[in-house]
Amino acid sequence: MIPPPGAGSRDDRTIVVALGGNALQPEGESGDIHEQFRHTRESLGAIVDLAGKNWHIAIVHGNGPQIGDALMREEFARSQVPPLPLGVLVAATAGWIGYMIQQSLENALENAGVRRSVVTLITQVVVDREAALARPTKPIGRPMDEARARVLADEDGWAVAEAGSSWRRVVPSPVPLEIVEADQIRRLVDDDVIVIAAGGGGTPVYRDPVLRLEGVNAVIDKDRAAEVLAAGIGAAVLLILTNVDGVYRAFGTPQQELLRRLSVDEADRLLADGEFGEGSMGPKVEAAIAFIRNGGRRAIIGRLDQGLGAVLGEAGTVIVP
Asked: What residue ranges define each of the domains in the chain, with the CATH number in brackets?
């Protein structure tokens, strides 16, 4: 179970690192598996650096582009084989993306002369069932035209919505409450194993009084899942790696300003004022705020290639109590 805010001890050398699915499959690329392996290898420098400096590490990764492609494969094959539900596909992408990260990281650690084991753990994340069945709001999958979206809605029962000049599937995205395997992950991390967990935000489940754990068709925001995992294993630091230098005020305007250090209250005020995009930086700042208020020491948001510098206070944005 997740300790309540302030409960338990925090290990100053334990860190949870959140990698975005777009880091492995950037927008505009085909999603070819060889491209994804190349991007995976390029994304792991900070983790190798941290491992070499004896940090205890858990890694959470996104799966936004990958889950969309998995759904497309299901649609093309639905006349030939029974389709898999969304919750199962989340677990499936966590498995093969975890394999890519695990293999690439093992090779990079060996090349750097760092002796650490790496393991991927399929992770169940408890959510509120009613929230998981609520109105779908989170866009997933590749953009499509309206005609294709209407076919998906009519034939397959998907909820669809306009997204700018195109259409997307939309699904529920409930708040993560608990990492089922937190105790196992913590034991592995404490034993110096680098654990890849809560892949794609984790597979959403709820607790049924009779059936016990049951899956639901939803997706979980990977940054929020990383925050819940960090609380569950007693991490002192949450590092969210993205494609910008850190948190900006007035981002995208001539007045934009990189904010290098924020208190949790300052971050909360800026979030309430709408300074951060709902679908981009907003969820990352929300996760950072929740982590600090649940007893974390530092939450850091920084660029993928500046991970170690961000941890050392030389780059990125740090949010503190």
From this structure: 11-127+177-320 (3.40.1160.10), 135-171 (no CATH)
